[in-house]
Structures are given as C-alpha cells and as structure tokens.
C-alpha cells in the first residue's frame, strides 16, 4: 500500500538523520531537520499519527527514545546491517573544537533553537555565527555528487565508501545536515522523489537542461538538395512565358501552344527531376555513416577472479540464488568491491549523457550471442554478455558481476568502453560443498530456507575445491553466538544428505553462463588488480583456518 511505502521511505530518512547526529536529536529538532531536508513537515496525518513521538514509537527498529540529564527526550538511531559501520565510525569520531570556544559551543548546543523556541536572543546569537565548510570538504561533496544524484538516505554510506570516513557536520560547526545543504545551496539542490530526498549537483541539472534544449536534427528535417542543372531555370522561364496570355481570349492563346512545345516542357521537367534524384543519392553516399568508437569492445571477454586456495577462509556475500547447488557470490574484498562500485558510478556518469551514449549504440549486426556490452536497468549500467536474441526488440543477457540472466530491450544496449572491461567479472559460480538434495532435486522449501540463510549478510566461506569452473565451498554464519553451518542446517531439516564429496551440480551442467562467456583468470592478463587484495585477505584469516578445518572434519558433519 502507499502508506506502507511511505513508512519505509520515512524510516530510511529518519535513520539517516539520526545516525549523522552523534548526540541524537530532540523530537523538535527532528521535525525541523526533516522540514529543512524535505521542504515539508513530517507526514504525520498521512500515516495516522498525532505527534512525532507517536510516529517514532512505531519505529522500534529505527529509533531509540532516551532521556537526557535534564529530562528532555532524545531520539537516537538504531543502525541496521547496512549502516552499522557508519554508526560505529560516527560514535568513535571525535568532534574537533577550538579550546577557546568550548563553552560557547556547549551553550549553543544546549540552546538549540526550534520552531517553538521562546528565546529569540539565543536564536539571533546562533544565526549570527553561520558556519562555513572548508573548501576541501565542499570539493568532496561536489565530487561525490558529480557522478550522479544521490538519495539522502544513501549519503552517509556513499561518503564513507568514497572517502573512507564518516561525514561529521558538527565538527565544522553545523547543528544539522540542513545547515550544511543550506550553506551549499548555490551548488547542491534537494529534490523530492518517490524514493525520498534526492541531492543533486546544480551543474548536473544545468547540463541536463542544456541537453534537453539542444534540438536534434534528423535526416527528415534537412532541407532538400537544390538541383544545379540549368534546365530548371530554363524550364521555369518557359513556364512563365507559356503562362502569360498573349491575347485577351484564353481560348485563342491555348490554340497557339503547339504539342511540340508541351512535350519539350515535359521533357525538361523529367530531366530536372532525374537530376534532383541523382544529386540526392550522391548526398546520401557522401553523408558520414556513424562510426564505432575505437575504444568500443567488439571481440573481447571478461576474465574471472583468480582461484582461491583450498581450505582458506574468505568473507562472501551471496548475490543470486537458484538453489544450494547453483548460486553466485561476491568476495568481500575491499579493493575489488570498491572497484566495482567506482566502475558503476563512472559508467552511470558517462552513459547518462545522451551525446556520449549515442556514440556507443550497437548496430543490429553487433547484437549477437557472446557479445560483451553494457545495459541500463533502473538508471544504472551493468556489464553484460548477450546470451540469446529473443526477437527484434528483446535479448537475454548474463550479468557477469551479479550472476543472473535477464531479458532487456535491445535499445538499452551499448558498446562497452575498453577500459571498463579490465576489472574481472565479480560474480563467482558456486555450489554448497558435500551436500545433495534428498529427493534428487532441491525442493521449494529447501531453496527458500537457503535463500533465507544467505539473505543480505556477510558470511564466511570455507573453500573446498573447484569442479568444472564451479567453486564448491562451505558457508557459515558467524554473526550469532554459535557458528551456523548451512550444510548442517539443510541436513537437520531433512532437505539434504551430507555425502562427504562434491557431486557435480546438475543446474550448472545444464547451463553455466560463466563458463561460456568468462575466460579463466590470467588468459586476458588483467586479473592482477585483485590478486594482492585477495592474498592479504586469505593470509589474515589463516589463523582461523585450522579451527574451521577441524570442525568440518569432525562431528560438525
């Protein structure tokens, strides 16, 4: 329902505002900051609430209600899995203040003005001392938004990912994120969308407007070619001469026009038409045809990530699941994951410009199975390989960085720029080690349970071996008090038999797009960008490897 969607968006925005406020916010401060960000009050009536406290009371997973020493209510954020890292950084980060202004800052925080404030003097004191962001911080914000607009709820994570630290506006003297955006209103605009508040670089808006205003000339709008033959002018003169009456009586004039003259005029007309057609054909032949950019990928494949060592431990995230015998993972490698995120931001920035994007439109002959290219889905661009052509409008593509097949429009496809093909394909085809389905094929209940175990969390993978290019590994959830091994859970629930060996995946034998379209590591000479990072990660977990090995070899199975 619309109310449920609105509530979900509101939860994200409230969490983002409260996480950025290390000391929390009062209900009045939250109301004011929300108005400043969204340009309208909290939608209390739309959601059926009478007050802000009543609203946050219905967000127990988002907001913790505390009381200060003075008895005032303070709202603090409850971080979820995706924001725990940011919250930890915010909690540990110290606010830099000048020694001389410590007392002033303390008084200013205590006397924070709200819309119900009855102390205009304190408001004047605060507003008279408008803080200013350092030039380097302004540059960072502009750089962050230069690639693409950003939702307010995603701002903290994006800033942390790009610059390696949390954005702390209080250390620059600001009391809310609203003041930060207001101080940069000349370069950053806040727009309202269905997904929430969108931060947009004004330069980005101007560029989009300019692109929309540039008229696109087409062949149909081009002026007709003017024939250069002299017969046209003579023909027009003949028509003029023949159209002038030589006597008052029109009938007598027509009698004077001989059949020979009419034929001569008609021949001149036919000749001019033929010359015009010939001139137009010459123009079409001389017109430049669209050329494929020299950096467009035409006959290149992505390479895979380098293989992992047997029995090593590695952090993984399961990206796409067909069954416990067929799923795709991402390695939780800082270097590799950041490179993929940066690549997607850059691709969105480049291909979102119409002029640049049109240069990489794929002609019909290039839309063929096995072609490496990119496609736009929900305003993001993904590296894909064409798997099959369905009809004149649609193709099925394999997303090499996430592991799934998807049907897309041909018009969404573009040639991939050469340097976007250097990063290895990030999705690794996997099967759960040492298990097989009890009934011969995995039941719907078993698949659902496996998806639930893997859902949006970082897991520990214990590498067993590779079989026909598929990685067989054990998965373990270490976020609970006791480690949870997925093969044991499936066995205990009666969905799987632990067989002590790896049976080739029937699903991957029927179709393994990675084996079809992705080259093994080293064949393309560009896998070294992640080798060092993976090696460091493996070495960092060697201390735990022996423990995991003993568990797997012992009673755990």
Short description:
The protein is an alpha+beta fold and 557 residues long. The chain has helices spanning 2-20, 27-38, 44-47, 52-57, 84-92, 102-110, 120-128, 135-146, 155-163, 177-183, 202-213, 231-243, 250-256, 259-286, 334-351, 354-359, 444-454, 486-492, 506-510, 513-517, 528-540, 542-553; strands spanning 63-67, 73-77, 150-151, 188-193, 196-201, 313-323, 326-331, 372-377, 380-389, 394-399, 405-409, 413-415, 428-432, 435-437, 459-467, 470-477, 484-485, 496-498.
Helix content estimate: 40-55%
Spans of 5+ residues with little confidence (pLDDT < 50)?
Answer: 95-129, 212-250, 523-543
Tally of alpha and pi helices? 22
Major β-sheet profile: 5 strands, mixed, barrel
Give the helix/strand class: alpha+beta
CATH architecture of the domain at 302-517: Beta Barrel
Question: Using DSSP, what is the number of strands?
Answer: 18
Question: What global shape is seen?
Answer: globular
Strand order of the largest sheet: 6-7-13-16-15
Strand content bin: 15-25%
- Overall CATH class of the domain at 302-517: Mainly Beta
Radius of gyration: 34 Å
Span between N and C termini?
45 Å
Indicate the CATH topology of the domain at 302-517: OB fold (Dihydrolipoamide Acetyltransferase, E2P)
Rounded mean pLDDT score: 76
């Amino acid at each position: 329902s619309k109310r449920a969607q609105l509530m979900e968006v509101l939860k994200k925005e409230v969490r983002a505002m409260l996480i950025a406020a290390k000391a929390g916010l009062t209900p009045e401060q939250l109301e004011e900051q929300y108005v400043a960000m969204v340009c309208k009050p909290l939608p209390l009536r739309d959601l059926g609430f009478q007050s802000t406290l009543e609203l946050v009371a219905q967000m127990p997973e988002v907001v913790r209600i505390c009381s200060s020493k003075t008895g005032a209510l303070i709202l603090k954020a409850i971080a979820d899995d995706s924001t725990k890292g940011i919250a930890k950084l915010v909690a540990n980060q110290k606010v830099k203040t000048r020694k001389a202004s410590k007392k002033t800052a303390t008084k200013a925080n205590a006397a924070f003005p709200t819309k119900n404030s009855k102390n205009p003097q304190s408001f004047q004191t605060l507003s008279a001392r408008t803080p200013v962001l350092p030039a380097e911080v302004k540059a960072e914000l502009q750089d962050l938004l230069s690639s693409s607009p950003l939702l307010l709820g995603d701002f903290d994570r994006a800033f942390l990912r790009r610059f390696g630290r949390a954005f702390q506006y209080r250390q620059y003297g600001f009391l809310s994120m609203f003041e930060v955006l207001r101080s940069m209103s000349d370069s950053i605009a806040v727009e309202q969308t269905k997904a929430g508040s969108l931060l947009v670089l004004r330069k980005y808006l101007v560029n989009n407007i300019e692109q929309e205003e540039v008229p696109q000339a087409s062949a149909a709008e081009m002026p007709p070619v003017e024939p250069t033959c002299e017969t046209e002018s003579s023909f027009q003169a003949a028509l003029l001469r023949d159209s002038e009456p030589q006597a008052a009586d029109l009938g007598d004039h027509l009698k004077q026009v001989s059949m020979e003259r009419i034929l001569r005029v008609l021949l001149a007309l036919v000749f001019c038409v033929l010359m015009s057609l010939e001139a137009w054909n010459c123009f079409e032949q001389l017109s430049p045809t669209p050329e494929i950019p020299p950096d467009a990928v035409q006959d290149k494949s992505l390479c895979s990530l380098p293989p992992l060592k047997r029995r090593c431990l590695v952090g993984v995230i399961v990206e796409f699941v067909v069954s416990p015998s067929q799923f795709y993972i991402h390695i939780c490698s800082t270097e590799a994951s950041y490179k993929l995120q940066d690549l997607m931001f850059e691709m969105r920035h480049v291909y979102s410009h119409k002029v640049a994007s049109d240069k990489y439109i794929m002609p019909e002959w290039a839309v063929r199975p096995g072609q490496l290219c990119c496609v736009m889905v929900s305003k993001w661009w993904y590296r894909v390989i064409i798997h099959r052509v369905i009809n004149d409008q649609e193709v099925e593509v394999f997303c090499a960085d996430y592991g799934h097949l998807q049907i897309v429009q041909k018009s969404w496809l573009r040639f991939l720029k050469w340097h976007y093909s250097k990063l290895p394909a990030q999705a690794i085809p996997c099967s759960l080690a040492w298990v097989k389905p009890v009934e011969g094929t995995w039941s719907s209940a078993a698949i659902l349970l496996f998806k639930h175990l893997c859902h949006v969390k970082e897991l520990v993978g214990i590498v067993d071996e590779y079989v026909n290019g598929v990685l067989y590994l054990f998965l373990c959830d270490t976020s609970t008090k006791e480690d949870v091994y997925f093969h044991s859970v499936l066995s205990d629930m009666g969905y799987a038999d632990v067989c002590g060996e790896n049976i080739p995946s029937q699903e991957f034998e029927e179709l393994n797009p990675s084996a079809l379209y992705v080259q093994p590591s080293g064949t393309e000479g560009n896998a070294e960008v992640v080798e060092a990072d993976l090696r460091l990660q493996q070495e960092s977990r060697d201390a735990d490897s022996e423990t995991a090995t003993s568990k797997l070899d012992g009673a755990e199975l």
